[in-house]
Amino acid sequence: MPDQPNVPPTEAEVSEQRRVRQDKRARLLAEGRQAYPVSVPRTHALREVRSRWASLGTGEETQDVVSVAGRVVFLRNTGKLCFATLQEGLSTHDTGTRLQVMLSLAEVGQEALDSWKADVDLGDFVSVTGRVVSSRRGELSVMAGDWVLASKALRPLPNLYADAGLSEETRVRQRYADLTVREEARQMVLDRARVTRSIRDTLHRHDFVEVESPVLQLVHGGAHARPFPTHLNAFDIDMTLRIALELFLKRAVVGGVDRVYEMGRIFRNEGVDSTHSPEFTMLEFYEAWGDQRSVAELTRQIVLDVADVLGSRQVETPAGTIDLDGEWRWLGVYPGLSEVLGEEVTPETSLDDLRALAAAREVTLDPAWGAEKVVLELFAELVEPTLLQPTFVCDYPPSAQPLARPHRSDPALIEAWDLFIGGVERGTGFSELIDPVVQRERLTAQSLEAAAGDPEAMQLDDDFLDALEFGAPPMGGVGLGLDRLIMLFSGAGIRETILFPLLRPGS
């Protein structure tokens, strides 16, 4: 088979290739040969060969015989000498080593060489047994003495030589093909694994205990979000998929798990865009005897440790360089908004004045919004996009976070922050509300909003309130979006950071 051109195949060509491959499979079976054997010879991983025989000089040969296996990602068949490149799957060590194999008439014989030319296509898995050599061009290789088909690929992979033929839509819909073709896709998988491991290492170093909480819940709470409804047939009750991890983790703190965390999937039945997915991964942790300041420092350490694992505390973005080693600023909502507006805004600023400020800056408002909501909207539109360097936006109005503690020095505010880096919210933290009476009042108000038709308002969770009445220690808590953290370091959209993102049905 000649070198493949650097262009994606047409639909007709793909259909023809599938037919040819199906015919090859049928022929192999008819000849009594296996297209999908249970096992094949494999004594060394490709990376092991590259490591052990890395010092071979150009043209040098050994009598060391190995059996290697992998997917064929390059194929060049000539008269008496065939070349192929095998690729193995990624591991914790690398993103998928490649190694050249060579088949010569003198080494494998006419029958085996003819079978290779007739049977093997790009994308097939093969096992090759032979001597480790260095080619005349200095390429470390296995000179085959024998080979066997390990798995016949019936569908050609999209453009194995470059990603030009892989649109973003194809990449996310056929991630299996994406991982084969693109180094960046494999690197994203590896980086995500490194990030999750780093977060666990940091939290374990600070004596946190990892737990798991229910995904199916009777009452949705812990965040202002629209849930996914479902039904449990065994009990004949309506339930929802969780929108947050918070309320069960706080129950654990009540029970004496003083430092607790969970990294898990949560589900919000909301919009889909470059920073939002209906299904995503959240880290939440809660620290007894902590507050918003102590958990902010731990959050900073988590981010810095992730940066060190990925290689740099300076992140390049189109808006400029983010310096994670620099100051992590604390910025109050009202002072921050006042700074941008050029005039003071406080919790006492009237709704009419706020609406006038919004109109002057062409910020669209819902007429039903109160003053606190208008302040939050103004801040989101005018301030948040400017927060390139790490910033803890703090001192929110109470309606922003119904589960946060009233501010210790200003009852018009709460002790809560949102961490912005690169103009995007990455996480949120609180001095947690532990007064069961005040918490009941806030959740009751939320449940009334839900009953009035707000699909994002929390429901009244009596069991959670019962737990608080047992007594909870003062605590700080954090929710950090894992996908958005990876987006920060990779510059990719959320669909690229999630291995198999939820997509609209389509071809």
TrEMBL record:
It catalyses: tRNA(Lys) + L-lysine + ATP = L-lysyl-tRNA(Lys) + AMP + diphosphate. GO terms for molecular function: ATP binding; lysine-tRNA ligase activity; magnesium ion binding; tRNA binding. It comes from the Bacteria. Mg(2+) 2 binds at residue 425. Keywords: Aminoacyl-tRNA synthetase, ATP-binding, Cytoplasm, Ligase, Magnesium, Metal-binding, Nucleotide-binding, Protein biosynthesis. Its EC number is 6.1.1.6. Its main location: cytoplasm. GO terms for biological process: lysyl-tRNA aminoacylation. InterPro entries: Aa-tRNA-synt_II, aa-tRNA-synth_II, aa-tRNA-synth_II/BPL/LPL, Lys-tRNA-ligase_II, Lys-tRNA-ligase_II_N, Lys-tRNA-synth_II_C, NA-bd_OB-fold, NA-bd_OB_tRNA. Gene3D superfamilies: Bira Bifunctional Protein, Domain 2, Nucleic acid-binding proteins. It is found in: Cytoplasm. Its cofactor is Mg(2+). Residues 192-505 form the Aminoacyl-transfer RNA synthetases class-II family profile domain. The keyword Aminoacyl-tRNA synthetase applies. One of its GO terms (cellular component) is cytosol. Residues 1-22 are annotated as: Disordered. Binds 3 Mg(2+) ions per subunit. Mg(2+) 1 binds at residues 418, 425. Homodimer. NCBIfam families: lysS_bact, PRK00484.1. Belongs to the class-II aminoacyl-tRNA synthetase family. This is Lysine--tRNA ligase. It comes from Microlunatus sagamiharensis.
